[in-house]
Amino acid sequence: MTRASRGRAASAAASAAASAALVLALTGCAAAERDPAASVQNEPAGTAELEGQLTVFAAASLTGAFDELATRFEQLHPRLEVAPITYDGSSVLATQLIEGAQADVFASADERNLATVAAEGLIAGEAGVFAANVLEIAVQPGNPLGIESLDDLVETTASGAAPIVVTCAPEVPCGTASAALLDRGGVELAPASEEQNVGAVLSKVRAGEADAGLVYVTDVQAAGAEVEGVEIEGADAATNVYPIAALTGSANPEAAAAFVEFVRSPEGAEVLASFGFGAP
Amino acid sequence: MPIWLLVPAVLGGAVLVLPLAALLLRLDWAGVPAAMSSPAALQALSLSLITATVATLCCVLLGVPLAVVIARSTPAVAAVLRTLTTLPLVLPPLVGGIALLALLGRNGVLGDSLAVLGLRVPFTTAAVVIAQTFVALPFLVITVEGSLRSIGTRYESVAAGLGAGPFTVFRRITVPLVGPGLLAGTVLCFARALGEFGATALFAGNAPGVTRTMPLAIYTAFNGAGVSEDTAIALSLMLILVAVAVLLVMRAWREDATR
Prior knowledge:
Number of strands of chain B: 0
CATH class of the largest domain in chain A: Alpha Beta
Shape of chain A: elongated
CATH architecture of the domain at 50-211 in chain B: Orthogonal Bundle
Oligomer: heterodimer
Strand content of chain A: 15-25%
CATH superfamily of the domain at 50-211 in chain B: MetI-like
Distance between the termini of chain A: 51 Å
Radius of gyration of chain A: 21 Å
Structural class of chain A: alpha/beta
Number of helices of chain B: 12
CATH architecture of the largest domain in chain A: 3-Layer(aba) Sandwich
Structural class of chain B: mainly alpha
Distance between the termini of chain B: 29 Å
Helix content of chain B: over 70%
């Protein structure tokens, strides 16, 4: 059985190589179509020539911001390619890293999930915080149910039923923060669904399947006109602080360290701020 | 047939047909070509086709010999083997994903041996293929084994009596006779591999271009991370078309078998 599965793993590895080649070809085409704004001129003096690939695991709430950061980082280092970033709930990503997923950098939406990964000896060097975020209530455009506070989430509306509310699961940072705020306000909410990442909560509200969802300020901003955000009184009490770290299993440690540094640089802070993130 | 049976029968039909009809209505047909050719869709599509094809090959290579062994075993042994083979078919695929992690994960039973060899399986494209093979293999084994038992051993005995060696018998008699069943099993197997989600999500994860197959891309679209919903619905349409094609092939095979 062992030998059979090894053989299978070997043949699968061969197939992986083949499909990786194809994927590389595909992403190569995509990269060729990208705006070739990468110029050597805007490379700061003294930057070591980084090359190869960089794999980043990032919290779902970082989606837009980290795509932008990756693009800029590639422009600074034309010979380096950042693989499409894997976004998911921080606890999902932490589990995958602990189970052996290969990545160079991990950006979590809370200290706890980074600590879980660090406890397995997977963090190289120091983790540094780079952003902060607070929760808001995402509602349908125009706020038809007139939701103004956490209390309104459990009040029966004109239709005679409580609003359909979706939150993050308690394991993921947005869920931890949601639970903290609801406890603080003494609100006993029974969510219609607990999602594994904040993107899933937002898309339920966006699709009109839920009346309200607890998401970050940055998600409401990213969704544009599709949802409306309602500020939560005292949301600062459950501020999420985002840490980032290079990983020990990295095949490209110099690039990993440089990316962490870039995210925490003034330029990185500027990009994050443009997506609505606060300073840590 | 009592006439009132028509009421629940119509309801039953509606339960099966209406959701898919609604999905087709929701499709923005004009936008399908664009949605299908978006980078995210093409990436998921090509990854799915490659992994499902490789998994199907693995299934044929491993499954046909296993089916032969089961079909030619004593009834007691065959019953045990059949149960073990069918188990992954009945199990929720998520359990399969956890089981694969328990065997091949970093902290799994074989984790250390794999690490020594410098092999890392979970969350790679190889993991996608292994997950698909695990869930699809029973389909092939069961179909081929059924075919083998229905053709019996008479032709093989005659060929062996005329002096053919075991391998010649297998190549010239067994494989051609079992051909239609093998085709049906292979097609079923491919369809199952293409639609595999649960085991893949746990064992291979959801990294774009590496492990994000069509089902994971569809799931991701509804989680609002990196794949548009139009793309997801277009991918769903493709999976439906594949399923329809599979049914047509299976039907042809059944007619062939019952002729």
